[in-house]
Design a protein that fits this description.
It is a single chain. 12% of the residues lie in helices and 28% in strands. Helix 2 packs parallel to helix 4. The protein contains four helices and 19 strands. The chain is an alpha+beta fold. The protein has a five-stranded antiparallel beta sheet, with no helix packed on it. The protein has a five-stranded mixed beta sheet with strand order 12-11-10-19-14, with helices on one face. This is L,D-TPase catalytic domain-containing protein. It holds the Pfam family YkuD.
Length: 303
């Protein structure tokens, strides 16, 4: 069994000094969380966020213990996919489209927190024992691939994929996957411009945020924390957290695939407004809290 990396574990340290004492302190706190996580590789419960916007600091709890899957001998055989077929399949990443992927039809449903990681490239199937529709690389945008489990069959996990179309899913053979549980859930009210962080069902943080403008709305439905990215070429945020979902109106943005992400913003006048290109802009203290949430954690984007 392995456990999911937190975004802070996978992001490099951002060294650019930001203007303003408050901004510098908040950025330092984000990097301190990153250093703490790196000191404890492999733990599923990252350091708990500090005082939230709505109350006192959350209480720590013991790391969750992943449950071992059944013996592989109990599983139906996963079809062997010839190397030539695998080579011709699209890789399930934020940059690709998977035409044959079944779509998630229960967009507001939660999960039990189970997340899985593939240690090597594996095939993604349209149903248990069915047709391969993609390959899944073990790394996404520089971060290890951790995906939320939304359904199970004996020997199989159905997961959310990071590719287009939005809400694409696929089935993975369970043998050889790392399986763990994240106690967190992120919930965003697009209409209410509010982000909430929950741990084991309890609200531990709440912030007013900025979301997509009318012409470039934030997508809705359930998705997940895909990766953690530090990009020194931009000044908007010390850390960017891409999600496994894309803009519903933009096909590309600045040459990229128009992936929706969570990030901070240099000025606070945007919060509470519908002004972005679809991304969710959060205050630095919210980014600090989210930097400790494991990859693969479910993100609910409510209309």
């Amino acid at each position: 069994m392995t456990e999911p990396a937190t975004p802070a574990q996978t992001g490099a340290t951002h060294r650019r000094a930001l203007a303003g004492v408050a901004g510098a302190v908040a950025v330092a706190a984000i990097m301190l969380a990153a250093a703490t996580c790196r000191a404890h590789p492999g733990r599923i419960d990252a350091p708990v966020p500090g005082p939230s916007a709505t109350g006192p600091a959350a209480q720590t709890s013991a790391p969750a213990t992943p449950t071992a899957p059944a013996s592989p001998s109990q599983y139906p055989a996963v079809p062997v996919v010839p190397a030539a077929v695998l080579h011709d399949l699209p890789a399930a990443t934020t940059d690709t489209t998977i035409p044959g992927a079944p779509l998630d039809t229960d967009l507001q449903a939660g999960t039990d927190g189970a997340v899985v990681h593939n240690h090597s490239t594996v095939a993604v199937f349209d149903r248990p024992g069915g047709r391969p529709v993609a390959t899944l690389p073990p790394v996404q945008a520089g971060s290890p691939t951790w995906l939320p489990v939304i359904d199970r069959e004996p020997g199989w996990f159905r997961v959310l994929l990071p590719s287009r179309p939005n809400h694409a899913t696929g089935w993975l053979g369970a043998t050889g996957l790392g399986v763990a549980r994240t106690p967190y859930q992120i919930r965003v009210s697009i209409h209410g411009t509010r982000l909430q962080l929950h741990r084991d069902g309890a609200l531990i943080g709440q912030w007013t945020v900025a979301v997509g403008a009318r012409a470039t709305p934030t997508p809705t439905g359930r998705t997940f924390l895909l990766a953690s990215v530090v990009d020194d070429s931009q000044r908007m945020s010390p850390l960017i957290l891409p999600l496994g979902i894309h803009s519903p109106t933009l096909t590309t943005y600045h040459g990229g695939p128009a992936t929706t992400a969570i990030h901070s913003w240099p000025s606070s006048d945007v919060y509470g407004k519908h002004v972005s290109n679809g991304c969710i802009r959060v205050p630095l203290d919210a980014l600090h809290a989210l930097a400790t949430v494991p990859l693969g954690t479910l993100v609910q984007l409510d209309p």
